[in-house]
Amino acid sequence: MKWQPEFATGDAGIDDQHKMLFETSDQFRRTLEAGEGHRTYDLFLDFLTAYCEMHFSIEEKCMFARKCPVATQNHHEHGLFLRLVEKETARFREDGFDAGSATKLVDTIDSWMESHICRIDVRLREVLA
Ligand SMILES: [Fe+2]
Ligand SMILES: [Fe+2]
User: Hey, what domains does the chain have and what are their CATH numbers?
Assistant: First the structure.
């Protein structure tokens, strides 16, 4: 999935971070489709964990500082996403690579990103204007 202009938040740094997640997820999806997912899945999961820590913290600070009306909801949804990544990371460490689980994760990232950015993150526009 690609970043779309309607995902713009009004903060170029935050938009760049969203673009980075779409690009990395797309890249991993191509690796997965080429049957090579097992080679880089651990790196992809590490990226997701580091990305969540960095991006969620920056975006939440920005929303709370500007009293964005969805700041609390943003924090809550980030927590749910982070738990999903943690759960899959724990499953991977226990049982190893599984193409079905990896596909499910990238599908979930795409649908979560689209839904979350369009409903929540874009509301930064109201307070950044
Ligand atoms: Fe967010
Ligand atoms: Fe975001």
Answer: 11-128 (1.20.120.50)
pTM of the model: 0.95
Query: In this structure, which ligand is nearest to the CA of 7?
Result: 2
**Cα radius of gyration (the chain):** 15
| Ligand showing the shortest atom-to-Cα distance for residue 18 | 2
Return the structure tokens found at 5. Answer: 């202009």
pLDDT tens column, 70-107 = 999 999 999 999 999 999 999 999 999 999 999 999 99
Give distance in angstroms: CA of 95 to centre of ligand 2: 30
Ligand nearest to the CA of 22: 2
Terminal CA-CA length for the chain = 28
* Amino acid at residue number 64: F
